[in-house]
Amino acid sequence: MVVYVEGVGMTKIDRHYDYSLKDLAANAAFAAIEQAGGVDGIDYLVFSSSLSSLQDNQLDTASYLATSLGLRGIKALNVEAGEASGLAAISVAKSLLESHQADKVLVIGAEKLNEFVSSKVYKQLQMLYDGDTKSFYNIGFAGDAAILMRLYMDTYNVDRELMSYWPALMHSNAKENPYAMLNFAIKPDKVAKSQILADPITLLDSYPLGDGAAAIVLSNKDMSSSPLAKISAIESSTGYGSIELSEDPLLFDSLSEAFRRISNIADTSNLDFIEIHDSFTITAMIILETLGLANRGKAAELVSTGYFSPGGKGPLANPSGGLKARGHPLGATGVYQIAESSLQVANKFPGVKANNAKKGLVVSLNGLGSSSYVALVEGV
Amino acid sequence: MSMDLSISRFWRKKEIIYKLNGAKCKSCGKVHYPPKNACPYCGSRELELVELPRRGKLISYTTIYAIPEGARHQSPIYYGLIDLGVTKITAELTDIVNANSLKKDMEVEATLRKTQEDRDAGLIYYVLKFRPVLVQK
């Protein structure tokens, strides 16, 4: 079943020291509600965040937030799936609509990654990975991705410089996006020279620590007046989420399964654009290859030829600038991706536009694929 | 929060993190680490604990400078993906002279080392890390 996007709202991702999680959430939510024609009919709030309960010492945030937004009395729940929380929340909202538990759902994703010093946040971000082993070590948030990046470069004989075209493309796209945190261009050769986080991953291979919130209003067909877009399908799968357990860590098994599932229920060919989870350069390469948009070991080269760039032959990749340059406020990211994609197919995105975009694929995952979510966003 | 130190968690896991016990599936024969409640490959619940080899080869590795709170004095942190033959594991690497000495296929062995300490309670927590096997000349 299809659900409709009635309105979207986003805050610029930034270091929002002046605003609380609820302030950012309200900013995005009020914009989405206004675009959707007001609060009438909104009967459910699904709130997505990963670290906020820990950071704000707050449980049942969705309910407190509902009341804080002037929506006391509606139903509300929290959804948490690490970095995939945003798309997981939208998936839950879609199920609520399909099962007629809700008629109109407000989905808000909000996160603040600048609430504490970076070393504390690195430790919190380590929670994205399998705590059974990782929690006993001091490896932070980039260690596993770094091991994976070296494995990729060794296995396929890909050099560092070739990997650097992805971050450059993301910055180039983000430059046009008023909501992006890093809206400036960089040259590929800057990437290897930037600060090393976990060799070979540098600062410019990774996402900035940003605060942000995004919101969308979703409805059933019979409730929709003038929707921006429709979400034709969402699918997901769990997976190993671990380099050591996976027999083939250079593909994400959960994404492969989620994509197979969505391709069974919807037409995933002829994509005009994709919004994918490029938490690190290596994550983007593996996603492109898992989806079959690039041959194995060839994604970096394909990116360097301009295949995924504006005007390129392939689907436009991350016109928003992606996690890399738009930013990645964990639990909010999936909601940003759907909001941006809805604006793309409505021809209203205020940044790099995919020409006459009718269809886009959104990919979100946690860590190295403990879960993966995919959504197809189409014009109406 | 998962990374807060918990005495009971370390106690519970002592066979796994100190003895390096993995789990072998009686159904498909595959070994994994750390042991899950069912085999991650075939779903069978028929698992037996097996002591893993304490020596293996580096498949991949990294030198980490983005250090989480509580470990900054240990910077940089070396971390590797290790092939133990029967299975793969990830672990911190130790006794590394410098980042350039890390090489693919390098032989490493398990050794007991401090990972974190809880100053208020006066507790020191140990884990197995892997160090290079010294080559006899």
Which keywords apply here?
heterodimer, A: 380 residues, alpha/beta, Peroxisomal Thiolase, Chain A, domain 1, 10-stranded mixed sheet, two-stranded antiparallel sheet, 36% helix, B: 137 residues, mainly beta, OB fold (Dihydrolipoamide Acetyltransferase, E2P), 3-stranded antiparallel sheet
Identify the quaternary structure here. Answer: heterodimer
Indicate the mean pLDDT of chain B: 92
CATH fold assignment of the domain at 3-116 and 210-223 in chain A = Peroxisomal Thiolase, Chain A, domain 1
Number of domains of chain B: 2
CATH topology of the largest domain in chain B: OB fold (Dihydrolipoamide Acetyltransferase, E2P)
Question: How much helix, percentage-wise, in residues of chain B?
Answer: under 10%
Kindly report the name of the CATH homologous superfamily of the domain at 3-116 and 210-223 in chain A. Answer: Thiolase/Chalcone synthase
Number of strands of chain B: 8
Q: What is the CATH class designation of the domain at 3-116 and 210-223 in chain A? A: Alpha Beta
List the secondary-structure elements of chain B in sequence, H or E.
Answer: HHEEEEEEEE
Helix/sheet category of chain B:
mainly beta
Helix content of chain A: 25-40%
What does the radius of gyration of chain B come to?
16 Å
Widest sheet of chain A: strand order?
3-2-4-7-1-8-12-11-9-10
Tertiary shape of chain A? globular
Structural class of chain A: alpha/beta
Sheet-strand content of chain A, in percent, reads 15-25%
CATH architecture of the largest domain in chain B: Beta Barrel
Mean pLDDT of chain A, rounded to whole units?
97
- What pair of chains forms the biggest interface? A-B, 42 and 42 residues
The helix tally of chain B amounts to 2
